[in-house]
Amino acid sequence: MSVNDDMFVSASNTFSNFAVILYPFRSSSAGGYIQCNVRYGTSDRFVHSVAVAGIAKNSTNGTYFIFVFGAEKMSTKTPYVCISHVKVKNSTCEYTYQCTDMGTGGFHQEYFLIGVDTNGTFAYGFTDSFVFKLDIYANNITINVTTSSVWPSSGFIPHAIDVASTWAVVAGYG
Questions:
Q1: Which helix or strand (DSSP H or E) is residue 57 part of?
Q2: CA dist 87 to 39, 62, 73, 91, 105, Å?
């Protein structure tokens, strides 16, 4: 689950969907919130973590929203990161995904955390085996390194993150 001033997103692996509630948490016609059920699109996806970016920078009237999630293709144990674009049109939701494999398949990612900077421009992913930085608007992985170049010990396992515009705090065990 992730929330900011623009949107709320919760992932359900049991039902293979995201529950999305959009700012201004009301529909213009009914006076209530706009809720979308964004389907995973496959039964072979396990979502580990989700982070909201919020209203897209190119949204002219606040109808385009973005969230990012870290997931795993269970049949191949391949981790990947996806950018989801949600568009509100006449109080209904349309959505698309852009996904990128992280190329480290073959073993299950038990800990796969993702966060978005306060500007909603970059997503950062932290696992027990790799760390990456994703440019959300270019859909481009700008940094992808093994954890041996980041963590103080080889056994560090991330459990919680907070990302700002110029730094991130990662809490874990190791």
A1: none
A2: 14, 9, 26, 10, 32
**Is residue 141's pLDDT more than 90?**
yes
Place of tokens 């500007």: 119
Chain segment 72-104, per-residue pLDDT in tens = 999 999 999 999 999 988 778 999 999 999 976
Model pTM above 0.85: yes
DSSP states of 110-157: S-EEEEE-TTSSEEEEEESSEEEEEETTTTEEEEEEEGGGTSSSTT-E
Nearest CA to 12 out of 23, 3, 21, 1 is that of: 1
> Residue 6 and residue 92: Cα distance in Å, rounded?
17
Place of tokens 């997931």: 71
Which residues constitute the domain of residue 95? 2-173
Please tell me the total count of domains within the chain. 1
Q: Residue 8 region, left (φ>0) first, then alpha (ψ -120 to 50), else beta? A: beta
Measured CA to CA, the distance from residue 8 to residue 15 in angstroms comes to 17
pLDDT digits (tens, 9 = 90+) for 100-120: 999 766 788 888 999 999 999
